[in-house]
Amino acid sequence: MIIDIHGHTVAPPEVYQFQGRLLGSRGNPFDKFPELNDEAINNQLLKHIELLNKVGTDMQFISPRPYLAMHSIKPERVSHLWTEFVNNVIARQVELQPGYFRGVAGLPQHPGADIRDCIPELKRCVEELGFVGVQLNPDPMEGGAPDPPGLGDEYWYPLYEEIEKLDVPILIHSASCCSPRESYTLHFINEESIAIMSLLESDVFEHFPNLKFVVSHTGGAIPFHMGRFRAWRLRSNKPDFDESVKQLYFDTVNYSKEALELAFKVIGSDNLLFGTENPGTGSVMNPETGHTFDDLKPVIESIEFLTEEDKMKVFEGNAKKLYNLNI
Amino acid sequence: MIIDIHGHTVAPPEVYQFQGRLLGSRGNPFDKFPELNDEAINNQLLKHIELLNKVGTDMQFISPRPYLAMHSIKPERVSHLWTEFVNNVIARQVELQPGYFRGVAGLPQHPGADIRDCIPELKRCVEELGFVGVQLNPDPMEGGAPDPPGLGDEYWYPLYEEIEKLDVPILIHSASCCSPRESYTLHFINEESIAIMSLLESDVFEHFPNLKFVVSHTGGAIPFHMGRFRAWRLRSNKPDFDESVKQLYFDTVNYSKEALELAFKVIGSDNLLFGTENPGTGSVMNPETGHTFDDLKPVIESIEFLTEEDKMKVFEGNAKKLYNLNI
Amino acid sequence: MIIDIHGHTVAPPEVYQFQGRLLGSRGNPFDKFPELNDEAINNQLLKHIELLNKVGTDMQFISPRPYLAMHSIKPERVSHLWTEFVNNVIARQVELQPGYFRGVAGLPQHPGADIRDCIPELKRCVEELGFVGVQLNPDPMEGGAPDPPGLGDEYWYPLYEEIEKLDVPILIHSASCCSPRESYTLHFINEESIAIMSLLESDVFEHFPNLKFVVSHTGGAIPFHMGRFRAWRLRSNKPDFDESVKQLYFDTVNYSKEALELAFKVIGSDNLLFGTENPGTGSVMNPETGHTFDDLKPVIESIEFLTEEDKMKVFEGNAKKLYNLNI
Amino acid sequence: MIIDIHGHTVAPPEVYQFQGRLLGSRGNPFDKFPELNDEAINNQLLKHIELLNKVGTDMQFISPRPYLAMHSIKPERVSHLWTEFVNNVIARQVELQPGYFRGVAGLPQHPGADIRDCIPELKRCVEELGFVGVQLNPDPMEGGAPDPPGLGDEYWYPLYEEIEKLDVPILIHSASCCSPRESYTLHFINEESIAIMSLLESDVFEHFPNLKFVVSHTGGAIPFHMGRFRAWRLRSNKPDFDESVKQLYFDTVNYSKEALELAFKVIGSDNLLFGTENPGTGSVMNPETGHTFDDLKPVIESIEFLTEEDKMKVFEGNAKKLYNLNI
Amino acid sequence: MIIDIHGHTVAPPEVYQFQGRLLGSRGNPFDKFPELNDEAINNQLLKHIELLNKVGTDMQFISPRPYLAMHSIKPERVSHLWTEFVNNVIARQVELQPGYFRGVAGLPQHPGADIRDCIPELKRCVEELGFVGVQLNPDPMEGGAPDPPGLGDEYWYPLYEEIEKLDVPILIHSASCCSPRESYTLHFINEESIAIMSLLESDVFEHFPNLKFVVSHTGGAIPFHMGRFRAWRLRSNKPDFDESVKQLYFDTVNYSKEALELAFKVIGSDNLLFGTENPGTGSVMNPETGHTFDDLKPVIESIEFLTEEDKMKVFEGNAKKLYNLNI
Amino acid sequence: MIIDIHGHTVAPPEVYQFQGRLLGSRGNPFDKFPELNDEAINNQLLKHIELLNKVGTDMQFISPRPYLAMHSIKPERVSHLWTEFVNNVIARQVELQPGYFRGVAGLPQHPGADIRDCIPELKRCVEELGFVGVQLNPDPMEGGAPDPPGLGDEYWYPLYEEIEKLDVPILIHSASCCSPRESYTLHFINEESIAIMSLLESDVFEHFPNLKFVVSHTGGAIPFHMGRFRAWRLRSNKPDFDESVKQLYFDTVNYSKEALELAFKVIGSDNLLFGTENPGTGSVMNPETGHTFDDLKPVIESIEFLTEEDKMKVFEGNAKKLYNLNI
Predict the structure, then answer these.
(1) Which residues of A fall within a CB distance of 8 Å from B16?
(2) CA distances from C42 to C3, C65, C93, C97 (A)
(3) Would you say which domain of life the source belongs to (chains A, B, C, D, E, F) (predicted)?
């Protein structure tokens, strides 16, 4: 069974029409969410499922598409309304196609807001809508100033406490980026590197030993710069960096084989989970392979040094264990 | 002939899907505008025309829907890309249904940007796309800080110079509002009041005697507070306020008869142009009349003190003169 | 009996000499308030009374002149010292001429300050000085950034709680305006519109059912744009806008008859209170009538559709009831 | 002959009533300056002259009272209107009592404004109104952020160039102070110390060899800390600090004899000018002497180590030379 | 016995090498402090002692060199790490040469931080390291914005409470200055003037009657401007300024004899403590005397109007009493 | 011959003592640079050379140590003084050991400053001191706000123009990082990723076809995420990403073999230059290899798929060509 833990909702255009209106009105006045009919939703779902079938994915976890999160749009209510709406769409999609999808909740984050403001929506998604994970944006400022607290900061503790209680993994994934010099797609990578180092240098795991973080996009730059951080750790007599890294999990959303090979070498198959973000950035035909970049199953299958057990963990086992799946 | 000078484009959902993507990506990376097929556009147009036919409007001027302008979204390129795209949509709509529509250009305004950055798009719209007017947002900050320069400030002169040369009227219309205490729909009203007073207290008309401003929504609060401003003018021996007000034009986008009556009394039929924003805020059934609020033709026709000539000017004559229409 | 609920203190020049010194010194060093002799105060009062007699006003409620409030002058102590001083002047004026005046308290508001800082002065004015109302500035930023919380925001609740206990009406009236594009006199109007909408969209009346708000200047732009807000309410199935508006009271400080007629039509005589701000903005001879603009008694008396009972309420009854007057 | 080069205008209360109105209205709307009658002005002048006669002062140079300058009040036009108005008052006072007074011009400074904005008023005062000097505020931010450029910075050069051409001395005198921890009267002292060091460490005198600066209040803290700055100069092989200090002039507005003695020792009688600021801060009876603190003539006369020639320079000679007086 | 209460640590270059690294790394990553060997430290100490011997100083209190405090360097941890490290160096120096030195603690201040963050290091220095005093920076912003609260503000009370309990005197001494127009050495002087006035105008001594403040550099500008502040006090019927000043103590770190004479006249020998900052700013040969500027012992000895008892107090007695020394 | 193009100066502690003083004084007052004797400098050099000899490096290019650059320390003069001083130290080191070293210039960058301010020091270093390259910090804000312009922005063009004329390669290397969540060592990596993408998406190479950029640390995260950017390029019909990347050069300062192998695969040996930063972050014994992490020569030599020609280019040939070396 192939479980793709990193997918995002594919919604009908009406969802984005509402997004435009919400952006324009800033939620004031706001009356009610637009009603989407099942047919419109299902039409998109069928296309989505077709894409999954094509590459042999059996199940995908879907969360709100991060770059559309509007976390930094003022005022705060925009983030709350939009997140609730998109989570609802996801819940309906999972309900319509429970064989293919599970929900991962977006959170109504906002720059400078009390992180506790996210807890009601978190609980609603997990407890009422049955979502299996939660997506966390380490930079709700979306590239603006001031910098947010690092994920190792106590700012996040009230949220962590609740997530640990709910026992759902956190997918670390940043959102849009307002800086003219940094595209959102590169911002993802940089934020992941910062998130990893902030967590690994912190006391988070002492306070929340059961918290499970999955870092998107195979961990930003960190697997490529292991030597640098190994040296720092040795210099300061702190725990071995390679051991520390294994406190975290990583997905395989990295569209080159040579990079995935590196990831398997330095992270290992116990801490990697199959993910593709399909459809998304990688849904472009790679002229050299004749497959889309995000068709990662054959890529992983072709890595010679991986055992069948390794592959099974990555494709299925790790996800089932982490997300408490009984399928 | 009934000419509605204040309408906005009604676009297919795909337009807003692009808006969402542009907001999320901030135009980085950006490749090209999505291709919309004529059918999708025409489907919306037919619904739009049906609404116009229903209330007896023969022609409507359409501009980008102001509250969706994204003028204050960072970085500046978002405003440029979005404005160009929407103006293109409008141009295609006018081309598809030239009997019903004329285009009014949006401008790629941005907080703190040089106002000259708007001139290329202005010229493109008027000279290449044949637009008959231009929509100007007096608050590209969209309710943020610092306050923009008032419309009477020299900041705007390079734009005014170009508009005067192109000889198209300016529709004053603000956009979204980020302030949690002020809805965009109220922001429209307040910005119109500020715009009127800033212009009337300035030297703009001495420098640009042929510039034509049309103030949306019947002039914000000013017609209701004529006494206040009359008193100020008398107190300071400046030109009579009622005379000054006639340097500007106003539309009839005000959804109560008692207010329109007041407007006709204090502004007069030479300076009022028929406008409805249909479909828009007023497209709701008024249970007392059985008509939508924006069905303003019968309202105006029922104002007893207006002559036929008055009505002809408001419905048709003033617009033809101001916008140099030969229909 | 004619009761003008919207007047401001007319003080001797020495009061403003102290204001200049306070502005210059920012209250540091500060020793004590200057001593004003009764004669200087009474001389101004007699002129003030003469103006009231001339237009047939029997009693006027006087508060600090809002545009001089210095709420945004740094540091906070300037606002406290100045407000206390002016409230003292008003108390002496009422004491000297109790037949003509009642006091309405200014509050020592300051941008970003805890609203509780205003409560001691509020209680002093009502409980010790016998004031019958309180004047509230919805924008202590005086046009600066960031925007203050709307009057519907919980920020104001501690103050509302105290005012409800004291059972005095609130006169909503903004102050100076630092923005170069917006005169303070227009800022009044815009702030009133914002205040009305913020209150009517809030839960304030659920928490404080006995709170009484009087909006200055006949409610800013709202009576002129009833159609717009009626449409919004119908669109969202919220309570009828016309009903909502009646949760508030309004004064008649609007210097044109056509506007007052509109106000009576849409607000009604139960919610309008006679006010003139005399002497003030409207104290200029209207060449068309031969009266000053703020001589509003004959204007109201001439409105044909008002009954004697209507006029009695507006001139006297509503004020007596709202302000608990026993005269 | 006793010439007091540091006095400020004593104006009737109506001047401050206008100040209050200007502060409240921010100059918008603004019509015209209030008309003051000669009697009101002369009444104040006679009291002022009586004070001068009492302490034996023959002539005083008067400038706008610095702490009332409103340089940092937004928007910029407030500073322009107020400065022009006060300079006009001073011009009328000099005209009414030319035997006693000479004018020193205030400048319409404003935070962040182009310093060239001050030149028209400077020229008007010197060329049209016959003023003999100009008062310069080294901190138009009035204690706010960001810090202004030091007086040695090129920011001020366009103004210096014009002042050098007009050949009038500059009296360095700061204004109000918004910081809660620093009174304006202490701010004067600190700003003078900063101004001295900024000028002495700069190239100003190389570019403007004929510019004449008079530092108020005997030079802030510098004469008391000569040793500190002597050491710095020796340490860095720069010109001797005592020599450098003599590029500037200082007044005697320091209300203790022991401090004046120190000043004469370290500055010398060639660079000190008699000044009292009478009436002002020092116009309080000193219980130990039976004179007011600002009655400095007997204090200086009693300094034993001063020769008659020294005293003549300080009381009269230096002022005549610096200010090109022919009396 | 000659006790110099105002000295600063003279540390080996390795200390500043660590400072550079800490500045560069901002304490992230940070492992441990560098190990300095006793020899390197003692070599510097012997040079330091030689300087003291040369001028006849028997004991000096040493604190962190203030202009190197890095209080405003972001993030806050830089200040904490650096302060702890330098205090440790001082503790070792005192331990190595207990006959010559006593420690005065630096505090890890930081702009906007809770002042309670300084208490653990304060207690460590006094209770564990045996320091006899504490150095307080009244401007941890180091010339930046916004201004810090004045020393009379309640912001500082939690710290004062702890210091009073520990019964150690506070040496007021500011640090670096980021403003281009103000050198740190002048900033010292201005901050001292502000500190004095803020304390003397406050309630600090009512709340903390046993708190002892020593103002560096002979009190900034205040002794030179006693007349000004005497006048203010008399004008407002507040306590006599000369009496108030004696609530504070001052050191003699002022490198000109005429200024020290003035200080002894206005402050008196009960409130002055011998201090030189040797080696420091004054360690330059004064060509007129053949001694370094900071060789203040002969200067004070040569002040004719001081009695032997006066000198004994200043050189030794006041320090022993204030700092509870048993030597 | 082994040429290490990425080394930094190893300076005696006195250099950092001066850094501390400069930080504390902010260059005001500033007299002259401290004099360092040749012996102190040479002692450090000999240790440095010993390290190079140990690992078989024949020549190293040395630049200012980036994390100590103090680019964001206010005011701007700190950056200018410090950069000039360190460049001077490097020039002396090269002069003392010309067989081992070549100089790479630091630039006196500062947030918000005109980039032209760096040109005099650039020219001095190349034309007078004979430096062979220049080090450019893409983030002179050092992690502060607002974000600097990306390296592809026209802001940098005046500098690029001059560098192209001087024909020296640019080493891209960021400096300190003020953000509490991001260590400077990770900031290096993130800034490199941003720099690469900003340059590759820009027109810089069209305007400056001869400009040569060397990206430090093997290009941040980009080689690890080639798939992601390949997909973007294909999606938008822009030039192939792998080709674009070859417009830049990269060094080998990456301390893990698996990452270097990846780099050689995706970048190729024509665009990689040997670099180690020795001594620096990697100068720690790797317990698994028994070598320090920065002993990269054997690591590269052991990469099986590299030919001798490949290695020659990386160790020597590319550097000679790029830096115009004749050795």
Answers:
(1) 13, 16-17, 19-21
(2) 21, 18, 7, 9
(3) Bacteria
Phi-psi region of A135 (alpha: psi -120 to 50; beta: other; left: phi over 0): beta
Q: Å from A222 to nearest chain E CA? A: 16
CATH number for domain F3-322, candidates 3.20.20.140, 3.90.930.12, 1.20.120.430, 3.30.450.20: 3.20.20.140
Model confidence pLDDT, tens digit, residues A32-84: 999 999 999 999 999 999 999 999 999 999 999 999 999 999 999 999 999 99
d(CA B5, CA B321): 12
Helix axes A77-96, A13-25, angle to 10 degrees: 170
CA distance A120 to A126: 10
Quick one: closest CA in A to E31, which residue? A236
How far apart, in whole angstroms, are the C-alpha atoms of residue F327 and residue F324? 10
- Type of residue numbered D11: A
Tell me which of E194, E236, E241 to substitute to probe the interface with C (most C C-beta atoms closer than 10 Å). E236
The nearest CA of chain E is from the CA of F36 a distance in Å of 13
Candidates A293, A175, A156, A256; CA nearest to A213 is: A156
Rounded distance between C-alpha atoms, residue C251 and residue D233, angstroms: 70
Report how far residue E64's alpha carbon sits from residue E74's, in angstroms, rounded to the nearest whole number. Answer: 19
Domain ranges of chain C: 3-322
Residue with token string 């910005």: B191
**Contact residues, C window 237-266, toward A, CB-based 8 Å cutoff:** 237-238
Structure tokens at A229: 């951080």
Q: Partners of E103 in the beta sheet?
A: E62
Other CB atoms within 10 Å distance of the CB of residue F243: 9
Phi, psi of B123 (to 5 degrees): -65, -40
Prediction ipTM score = 0.97
Partner A contacted by F55 (CB < 8 A): no
Rounded Cα distance, A236 and A225, in Å: 18
How far is D222 from E224, CA to CA, in rounded Å? Answer: 9
| Residue tagged active-site, from C142, C162, C191, C277 | C277
Q: How far apart are CA D271 and CA D264, in angstroms?
A: 9
The number of angstroms, rounded, from the C-alpha of E48 to the middle of its chain's C-alpha atoms is 18
Q: Contact E31/A201, CB-based, under 8 Å?
A: no
pLDDT along chain A (327 residues), means of 10: 97 95 96 93 96 98 98 98 98 97 98 97 98 98 97 98 98 98 98 98 98 98 98 91 97 97 98 98 95 98 98 98 93
Whether the Cβ atoms of residue E133 and residue E213 lie closer than 8 Å to each other = no
String of DSSP letters for C246-274? TTSEEE-----HHHHHHHHHHT-TTSEE-
Q: Annotate D131-156 with b (16+ C-beta within 10 A) or e (fewer).
A: bbbbbbbbbbbbbbeebbebbbeeeb
Residue in chain B lying closest to F238 (CA): B31
Q: Is B29 an interface residue toward F (CB < 8 Å)?
A: yes
For tokens 């046009």, name the residue: C143
List all residues of chain A from 157 to 176 with a beta carbon under 8 Å from chain B: 175-176
Smallest CA–CA distance, residue B210 to chain D, in Å, is 26
Catalytic-labelled residue, pool D76, D142, D192, D277: D277
Which residues of B fall within a CB distance of 8 Å from D28?
A: 201
**What's the CA gap between C272 and C322, in Å, rounded?**
11
Residue F44, judged by CB atoms within 10 A of its CB (0-12, 13-18, 19+), counts as middle
Task: Give tens-digit pLDDT for B52-78.
Answer: 999 999 999 999 999 999 999 999 999
**Chain C neighbors of B227, CB-CB under 8 A:** 254-256, 259, 282, 293
